[in-house]
Fold Sugar phosphate isomerase/epimerase.
Amino acid sequence: MTRQFSLAHLTVLDCAPPEMTYLAARAGYDFVSFRPIYMGLPGEPNYALAENKQMLRETKKAMFETGMKLLDIELAKVYDGVDPKSYLPAMEVAAELGGRHVLSSIWTDDRNYAIERFTEICELAKPFGLTIELEFVPIASVHNLDGALDVLNTVNQKNAGLMIDVHHFHRSKDNVEDLDAVPRDWFRYLHLCNAPGEIPAWKPEMTRVLREERSLLGEGGIDVGSIVNRIPNIPYSIELPNAKLAQELGNEEFARRCLQSAKDYLNTHPLTKQEVK
């Protein structure tokens, strides 16, 4: 079974897109996944390529020289007061770079508002040929599979899909069997990692782990195979931030270890239910 892998930006967040592209190519990835939508989070660099023309030129050059492809961009958040049109420049850049998908998540408790804004994001993405992939996040408003499916079934947008993050799925305490009922064409890529099996009860600790202390495949406490086995064979975007290990190894070696551990894990855990896509 042929598998493809992307390097998610959160794994090497201190690498700007050009540097990250060269790094991903040397480490053996098929794709990169950028964060060109600046969210103003503490300590997070601004990689808004639409505003930084020099960085955009350098990114194009890196992608041309390496043959690396862009899988997706993030994060088109839905929150109170959001203007979905503010995501248009990033969508344009994604399309210009040959990207396929835009990751989204919902951070407002107003369901009707969330439905309206998510629908608008989907509509804005259509002219660019981009899909909008909804990710449920345990610390967000839409925090589990049921919540995400409710949104997707309600908006009924052809370019909307579901992006499963293995860490988030485990933390949401969802049942893997429920993935069988999800339309197969809603799955376009997933976030692959591992993490400690114990689920933090304190939100700040949950946030800390998901942002900076996930585990290599085979080293955490999540039964990754049981989740991945329910999903078609789609690209795996390795989102595995681990600040300590990245500092010890350096970003490139860390990215290489992330990829090799994922390949080793998947090769030793037969995924019998997957469909080749």
Summary: The longest helix spans residues 251-268. The mean pLDDT is 94. The chain has one domain: 5-268. The radius of gyration is 17 Å.
